[in-house]
Design goal:
By secondary structure, the chain is of the alpha/beta class. The protein has one domain. It has 10 helices and 6 strands. The chain has a 4-stranded mixed β-sheet with strand order 1-4-6-5, sandwiched between helices. Strands 2-3 form a two-stranded antiparallel ribbon. β2 and β3 form a beta hairpin. The chain binds zinc ion. Zinc ion (ZN) binds next to α6 and α7.
Length: 256
Amino acid sequence: MVSLGPIRQTLNNVLTLNLLAEMAWGFYYSIMITVKLNKELDYEVYDDFKAFEMSGANFAEAIKKDHSNIHEDNYLQYIDDFYKTNSDLLEKSCQEINDYLSQNQEAFFAKMNELFGLDFFTDEYLGYISIFNCNPRYVENKTFQIFYKKDLLDKAEVAFHESLHFAFFDFCDLFVDETRNLDKNNGPLWELSEIFNVIILNLPQFQTILKRPEQLFYPGLKEKFKQVQPIWLVNEGNLKNFIAESLNLWPKVPLT
Ligand SMILES: [Zn+2]
């Protein structure tokens, strides 16, 4: 008769090792970006963007282009109907980007950690699929929207672009005194954050992950982009100096 003792012991050792490996992996690997559906947020986004334009980007037109029949008096019903009729499409859009991000976000966050010298692996950012091509983000709770019709690489670009904004603002809050009291949604710091994203996401180490060039979305920022780029080249590797020096390009607006 074979004694089960040694077999049990071996089995226990294997189980313990597996458990330890899983715990170590779980500690190291966490999900940084998750994407969900959120119809209620689309009610708000329609209301906020139905007549909105910023730095040459016309969001009102973008909404009308995809939804010519939506207007102020029918938008709640319109959005309800759209979600009902297109539920499969929206679910699929959401699933696809989550699958893609689960394969690629770790590489992106590793590069972001290197860039800022901080650990963002434990941060959690929440994205929502939207039926409108506005793609807003909300810095205060690290959430953002992605237009459902974008292809997979463009959806990932939005998720990575917004993640870089959240990390940039965290870095500014921690290390750059000159950004204190500056608005993150408007004015110099916001404009610099958009330009920063174009510079950074076009670096080779980020391009291998994004797989398509990052464009400046706001035409009104083109001139400032040309002025900021040389400051990056001089300060590459010193983010704090780069941000502080770049902000000197904007006129100082006294705080009210
Ligand atoms: Zn942006």
